[in-house]
Amino acid sequence: MSERIAGYDFARSLAVFGLVVANFSGNVGHADFHWLYTFIQSGATATFILLAGVGVSLLTQSVRSTNGTHGIADNRKPLIKRAAFLIVVGICCNLIWYADVLHLYGISIAIGSLLIAPNRWLWSLAFIFVLTCAAFIFFLFDYYEVVDEAIRNNWNVPSDSDPWTVKGIVFRFYLSGLHSIFKWIAFLLIGMWLGQRNVHNPETRRKVFFSGIAVALISEYIPLVLIHHILWLVSGLSPANALRLIEAARILLTPLLTPIYFFAGGGTAITIVGGSLMLTERFPDAKWIKPFITTGQLSLTLYVAHLIIGGGLLKALGVLDKTLPLAVGSAVIFCICVVIFSYSWRRRFNRGPLEWGMRRVTG
Questions:
Q1: Per-residue pLDDT tens over the stretch 92-105
Q2: Distance (Å, rounded) from C-alpha 173 to C-alpha 183?
Q3: CA-to-CA distance for 178 and 172, rounded, in angstroms?
Q4: What residues contact 2, with CB distance under 8 A and at least 6 apart?
Q5: 289 near 6, Cβ under 8 Å?
């Protein structure tokens, strides 16, 4: 595998911070800030899975360059083993925090390892998966029955109330806008495409960064702001109620808007990754960058730690159910602590605890 690229680790650390803030504050989110919560959560999760795709491409780089079919098959084995490890750890984490995504991360990597393809096919495969997601939701499952049930139960969707029943599993893996397995695989494929780019080239880094901004703005954020202001000004609704109406419409129209969600989340993730690559290349020896890079290198350990501390300890103590400032403050303190921990740990050890365990188990 190629030498680690600092920009990818930096981006991974930003994804860790985003998930910590989103998960710590999810129970006390204020309506006026729901758009920001959605932006942080979707951007962080998309960045994580996109970077997993980058890792798949880097792992298979040498055998792809020589068109070695047997070599690609050999490289699939450790990928599938790591995917299985992540699925098992994710299922355990799911018992603590229902919104855990680690098992989906593992499933996506397992499926993505079977889709190692030449560069020109990756974008096409990604979009096919997104359209499959929309079609599955709309035609193969009574999506609106689930939505109606969620409304009648105060939005207590099946994935929250009975995650291990057939309905709960289907909702979690296929219908949930954030956790749809099809969309996650699509993000992974885009990451595999990005991993085949020469990001050491300054022009490539700039193209990645600015194309990500353009895609994210055009696909969702500019239309969202315009619709919000039109509803606010024309209908006479308060800003908070206008946001609630938009959110309800987003849920009801999920089957039709899935491709838009893909481009918006993917554009945000590409922007984060492109910006991180530019920043680490611009300041390669800056002392303030190193702690963020080490944080990204321990992302698996830190992700599980934030579920145990946030979803377990702090939630049991009621800290995350009180006020938004307290929840966000707890997230910020946690992020500061993990940066210090990661930097100190990496000065003594080559890998994080869970990263080491995964390598030992999977080879």
A1: 887 777 667 788 88
A2: 10
A3: 9
A4: 58, 61
A5: yes
Please, is 343 exposed, middle or buried when counting C-beta atoms within 10 Å of its C-beta (0-12, 13-18, 19+)?
middle
* Chain centroid, CA 323 distance in Å: 25
pLDDT tens sequence across 283-340: 988 999 999 999 999 999 999 998 888 767 777 777 666 677 787 888 899 999 999 9
| Whole-number average pLDDT of the chain | 76
Query: 221 exposed, middle or buried (CB, 10 Å; 0-12, 13-18, 19+)?
Result: middle
Q: Find out whether 4 and 290 touch, Cβ atoms under 8 Å.
A: no
Residue 342 contacts residue 298 (beta carbons within 8 Å)? yes
Chain centroid, CA 343 distance in Å = 23
194-204 pLDDT per residue, tens: 988 889 899 99
pLDDT digits (tens, 9 = 90+) for 3-35: 689 999 999 999 999 988 888 876 555 555 666
∠ CA(37), CA(43), CA(48), 5° rounding? 130
Q: Is the pLDDT of residue 155 over 60?
A: no
Half-sphere exposure of residue 68, counting CA atoms within 13 Å on the CB side?
14
Q: Is 357 exposed, middle or buried (0-12, 13-18, 19+ CB in 10 A)?
A: middle
Scanning the chain, the segments in alpha helix (DSSP H) are 6-25, 34-59, 61-65, 69-94, 102-113, 119-139, 143-152, 158-161, 166-170, 181-195, 202-216, 222-235, 239-252, 254-282, 290-297, 299-306, 315-316, 324-346, 353-362
CA angle, residues 97, 185, 352, in degrees to nearest 5:
55
- In angstroms, the CA 295 to CA 10 distance is 8
